[in-house]
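Blinded run. Sample ID left blank on purpose so nobody reads anything into the name before looking at the predicted structure. Input follows.
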Amino acid sequence: MGAALSLIPELEDVLQHGSRQKRAEALRRVTALFLGSADDYSDAHVALFDDVFMLLIEEIETKARAELSISLAPVGNAPVKVLRMLAHDDDIAVAGPVLTLAPRLAEADLVELATTKGQAHLQAISARKVLGEAVTDVLVRRGDRDVARSIAGNRGARISETGFSRLVQRAEKDDVLAEKVGQRPDIPPPLFRELVMRATAVVQERLLAAATPGLRAEIRRVLEKVSDEVGSRVGSRDYGAAQRLVLKLHRAGDMNEAALAAFAGDGKYEETVVALATLSRVPIGVADRLMAGEQPDPVLILCKAAGLSWPTVRAVITLRADGRSLSSLGIDAAFVNYERLSASTAQRVVRYWQVPQNQKARVAV
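Blinded prediction complete.
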């Protein structure tokens, strides 16, 4: 520490009479001295440097504080008091490196910062290599879209069941988040099933494509159950007359997209359901439950598998069992998802809603 002691006269002069520029120059000298032998310093020596740093960083410019943050953040035995001061800095250029990299910040420090600071600070914390559940709970609760996505994609972040539940809820309106959450190996199975049920067709496609064989099987099991869980609040309908009409059209070779579009355009719900079931080759009960659901995505899958054009699809999804109208934003979102959904993926999903292959194709009629 002889070199450190030799800085004391200079330090005294800088603190008593020095300008901000001189403080910054002294700070750079002390930083270089610390970094040069950091691994060799005892706790007492580090504590001394901590006090010196704390004195020098008062009233210096942001640039100098940011440089100090970058220098000290990755150091395993960096002085803790100055790290905390830097982490609390309102300027993210100063706080960011410490929040993301400093291993010396305790979990309690991170919880406090995540509770009190803004989104830029939360984003920096979310990128740490290791995060405990106490921290991620706060980040998921307070963080914006980018913070939530960062946490979901950070495999070093431990997420509690409560955290996962919040992420699944948020993922219903965020396809990117849904994909990241769905690909985490630590998501609890019940919440994974809920995520898949809520996911758009596009996300289901991506999850299937990226999944391991075991996870792919689980996704398929979830999709098989969707017809039993969607639209459960809707009572049974009498499809007898609609079946007879659709059967007549089918035998005449006229049960096609134009007929379906006409049914939907005229507001004929039962006929629309039976016609859609026929064209997509699923049981009427499945088409009924999917049409009655709150989200149009399962119906989009049926329509894409049947090769229907968007005008027809729009007419079908706006024909609601409960009489409610689909908002213009909902229609726009459905159009985007329908355009992005591939026919091959839709057909693969629909296979799990169809009857066994050895039965006749006349599933609806």
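Unblinding after everyone has recorded impressions. The two ends are 90 Å apart (CA to CA).
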